[in-house]
Fold Aldo-keto reductase family 1 member C1 homolog isoform X2.
Amino acid sequence: MDHKHLRVALNDGHSIPVLGFGTSIPSKLPKSKALEATKLAIDAGFRHFDCAYCYQNEEEVGLAIRSKIADGIVKREEIFYTSKLWPTFSRPELVQPALEMSLKKLQLDYVDLYLIHFPTPLQPGENLLPKDDHGKLLCDTVDLCDTWAAMEKCKDAGLAKSIGVSNFNRRQLEMILNKPGLKYKPVCNQVECHPYLNQRKLLDFCKSKDIVLVAYSALGTSRDKLWVDASSPVLLEDPVLCALAKKHQRSSAQIALRYQLQRGVVVLAHSVTEKRIRENMQVFEFQLTSEDMKSLDGLNRNFRYNTADYFDGHPSHPFSDEY
């Protein structure tokens, strides 16, 4: 089967490619890297692109996609594009304008998936992380069910084909699912997920509600010092992953990606290197045994690279619950 067409059904009738390309780039690199990497990813066969307002590179990613459409390499309908609503736009009246702002940067008519990026409303304004004079985070009191109702309107307006959430824990997901007058369920919950944080309980819960789990930081992280502790363990150097890579004559990144696919998780691969981008697309060419999967399950240590400590003190911080 052509890997470009491996998709999983969403609960609203649409479908999502099981392997996606993450477009956030380390802060030390120029934004032009996002343009270059997205073009390389399209050439390698990626059709699912994950971006966000807060990555501040939607112009570059949009330009890469449009240039490949103009070259006749892909059609718009073959591309699955995700963007995300940052918490400073949580107020219902700001949701659609925020999506329209992303679409303007992208110069696209719609996104395939729009996510609430974090369940932590912040006061509106120019700053991604608004703080008072004492450096205290400026939280906002917004009912996420009202934010969700505004997301539903974006879907009805055709600006987003599907809508979902990101970084929500079980309790926060249930709050949306139990919303009076709910029109559309979230199609997915995008969370950090890798062998050190396999999210088993959250995955089981999402599956029971027909919600797809999408894994970010599936290869560990780019170790961007802005948000990752430099002393964090390097996932791709784990001896178990390396032994399986040797056994299958693959890279440890390919093993980590394949692990998620076999668990029924949609997985995002992230790289700015052409060789690795191409390698990551080869995860459909081999299979892990049930013993391999068991070994990888055994690596779980509930370790987060992204602790979201920039939201510390927020009453809705999603990672204070067990899952």
In short: The chain has a mean pLDDT of 94. The domain at 3-305 is CATH 3.20.20.100 (TIM Barrel). The chain has one domain: 3-305.
